[in-house]
Task: structure prediction
Amino acid sequence: MLFNSFTFLIFFILVFFIYWFPLKNKTKVQNVFILLSSYVFYAWWDWRFLGLIVASTIVDYFIGNHLGKQQAVKCRKILLGISIIFNLGLLCYFKYANFFIENWILAWDSVGVKTNVTSLQIILPVGISFYTFQTLSYTIDVYRKNLKPTHNFINFAAFVAFFPQLVAGPIERASHLLPQFTLNRKFDYNYATSGLYLIVWGLFKKIVIADTCATYVNTIFDNYETMNALSLLLGAIYFAFQIYGDFSGYSDIAIGLSRLLGFDLKQNFNKPYFSRNIAEFWRRWHISLSTWFRDYLYIPLGGSQGTKVLKVRNVFIIFLVSGFWHGANWTFVFWGALNAFYFLPLVLLNTNRKHLDAVSIKANKAGLITFYDIVTTFLLVTLAWVFFRAPTITDAFAYLIRLFSNHNFSIQYLTIERYNIEAILLLFLFTVLEWCSRNYEHPFKGRFNNLLFVIVIVLIITLGVYSEHANFIYFQF
Result:
């Protein structure tokens, strides 16, 4: 059930009216209803995988409660270990089993040894990378005594399966979202309006920006051997906007839907393409995952403290794991390693916390430097995205080699019967809207917010792409 589908529209309208009218001021019943609605939402893809969420919920609920009672250090470590092994075991089996088996077969084939091992027919459950991390963070926080365990199973189950952010985040912390299930939620018109604005802006990012870019990206990447340098450069840029519009659009919709139900979710993107260095980019991109790895992996390893050798080790571990989290393919691992190389000089020079202020460009020398930093950072990120998008590392390198060796910068007419100039104009409009609203959640602020809101809705209707590109990219992760 996709956010950008008529089916979901009907589903959410029913949920909204039942939630706020027959169940108004009935918090416990509302929570049961949210839980059941979330299970229906997830089962719509494949009901067989619903048992995985239920199992993960039951295991971590009981482990959390036992951690709250148990004081012996050894027993607490065993309980935490069970949670980690169970959750990561689920994730590794469904997401990485085939990857390891296929690479095992290739390794033996490379030395002329034939094996009888065959890959498994494993379907990747949608959203498993997200809800396993969400439940795992709960048990870790309870183990660290940063959070008291909940004794209400319905509330905990609803927290794990909360449908607006179930399949692609944001990855919520129990300390932030779980207490909201205990509150008596009241409908707030202004809060709901802000949620509606986010939903519309998220749909614009997805249907107009991401899915339009997808038509160009697929054509250029699938036929990169025949593309000139300009088209290859634009193909990489289009993908940068595609994945941003697709993923941040999902997050905006998820946050907006939650507000319509009286819940607050954490911000997941903060205009990352206006970053002035790679460190700032990772503070603004997929914030819930970046902070998850920071708090539960990077800092426990020592973070940016200690010797230079330890700093280098920690940076590469965090980015390699992050890359591998995104998918069972060497392209993602290489993408993570490349970002580690980008990030490493900033850590070693202690400049990774340099840009913590709001970004602005003034008509002076400092403004030109800022503009240069933004463009340079964007281009570095865009080149890395080539490895994220390409089917193999070989294809990614071939793509980049042709990009830098072709030297033909003429405008090509693509097989999708469009010129690149059409997409360029659309992305220019989008970038202007993003820049003007860089300090806000969405562009519907100020004197002409209602007019702009109507214009964006018209653009969604007239320019929106409704095709096979409807799936959100991060569903595969």
Observations:
- The chain has a mean pLDDT of 91.
- The radius of gyration is 23 Å.
